[in-house]
From TrEMBL:
Superkingdom of source: Bacteria
Keywords, in A-Z order: Glycosidase, Hydrolase
Lineage: Bacteria, Bacillati, Bacillota, Clostridia, Eubacteriales
Organism annotation: Bittarella massiliensis
GO molecular function: purine nucleosidase activity; uridine nucleosidase activity
GO CC list: cytosol
GO biological process: purine nucleoside catabolic process
Protein name listed in UniProt: Nucleoside hydrolase
Cited InterPro entries: I/U_nuclsd_hydro_CS (IPR015910), Inosine/uridine_hydrolase_dom (IPR001910), IUNH (IPR023186), Ribo_hydro-like (IPR036452)
SUPFAM superfamilies, per the entry: Nucleoside hydrolase
Domain Inosine/uridine-preferring nucleoside hydrolase positions: 8-316
Pfam families: IU_nuc_hydro
Length: 323
């Protein structure tokens, strides 16, 4: 008997590692991707949307609608990551063919709310970028969004950040949005930057295997060329990091998770540049007893925080989907 596919919406600031996650999701037989929604983050919104269209083209599988969303964070100016992903987010290559799909005109937030409203409480969301679209949907229709059974979010730093000592890029770009999502009551799986630090890193051998696997394997490696070239310059050999594909794998292959803890998670929005966007995990177990009189009421754990995945298992999974 065939089991029902998991219905998901993917929200992405599509640049090079998001592109790999999109290719994987669209090849994954256990998933039904209902929509891809885009958000400003790694690159401005227009590029993120174009890159999502390109990724769908190269994935060579299902072609879900693509809805452009927020073009800037809720309260702060947009800060991008071109140094990691290239000016266009896809390694600044001239060899890719033109996207064969176009984005819809409907705003991502309207599309998310409609799909969740019309669904049967079974539509999960995977976020690969800043949480601006999700926060806007929650602010607009909190009750509708309570129908989402789980959000799997690539974001947050369990121990140390990649953009400041304490903050990971997606939470740092729009900490206000990340905190709204954490306070929404929707169950969360937070796949931190650290989860990809070992498992999501592809060195020379893995890059060669992936590149030779298929045209889409070549696409996955080539769009990450800015990272690859940065590594050749700094380390002397090619290497890329894939945090977003790691988040997708945490959803579809939870047996690859080797390190996680449960917590009540919030995100710092008031801090200085040392702590803005920092993920704060209250891990005090129920038996800890009463909390201090100086804090609000005790909050239940709403998040599973993933900080480690199986490197070989992840690469095998990626290779199988891409070949
Ligand atoms: C995250 O930030 C972006 O650069 C990546 O696409 C990923 O979503 C890693 O911190
Ligand atoms: Ca991303």
């Amino acid at each position: 008997m065939q089991t029902a596919r998991k219905k998901i919406i993917i929200d992405t600031d599509t640049a090079s590692d998001d592109a790999v996650a999109l290719v994987m999701a669209l090849r994954e037989p256990t998933l039904q991707v209902l929509a891809i929604t885009t958000v400003a983050g790694n690159v401005p919104l227009e590029l993120a949307t174009k890159n999502a269209c390109l990724s769908v083209t190269y994935a060579g599988g299902a072609r879900p609608p693509i809805y452009p969303g927020a073009d800037r964070p809720l309260c702060r100016p947009l800060r991008c990551a071109e140094g990691i992903h290239g000016k266009d987010g896809m390694g600044d290559q001239s060899c890719f063919r033109a996207p064969e799909v176009e984005a819809e005109r409907t705003h991502a937030v309207d599309a998310i709310l409609r799909l969740v409203r019309e669904g049967e409480g079974d539509i999960e969301i995977v976020t690969l970028g800043p949480l601006t679209n999700l926060a806007l949907a929650i602010l607009q229709e909190p009750e509708t969004m309570k129908r989402v059974p789980r959000i799997t979010a690539m974001g947050g730093a369990a121990f140390y950040g990649n953009t400041s000592p304490t903050a990971e890029f997606n939470f740092w770009v729009d900490a206000e949005a990340a905190d709204i999502v954490c306070r929404s009551g929707i169950p969360l799986t937070i796949v931190t930057g650290e989860a990809g630090l070992e498992a999501g890193v592809l060195g020379p051998e893995k890059l060669e295997l992936l590149e030779a696997a298929s045209e889409r394997g070549w696409f996955c490696v080539t769009c990450n060329d800015t990272m690859r070239q940065n590594s050749i310059r700094s380390r002397g050999y090619p290497q890329i990091g894939l945090p977003d594909p790691i988040a997708l794998a945490a959803l579809t292959r939870p047996e690859l998770i080797t390190g996680s803890f449960d917590a009540h998670v919030r995100v710092e929005t008031q801090g200085s540049d040392l702590t803005y966007g920092m993920m704060v995990c209250d891990r005090r177990p129920p038996e800890y007893g009463a909390v201090s009189k100086h804090e609000g009421p005790r909050q239940p754990f709403q998040a599973k925080v993933v900080y480690e995945m199986d490197p070989e298992g992840f690469f095998q999974y990626l290779y199988e989907l891409v070949k």
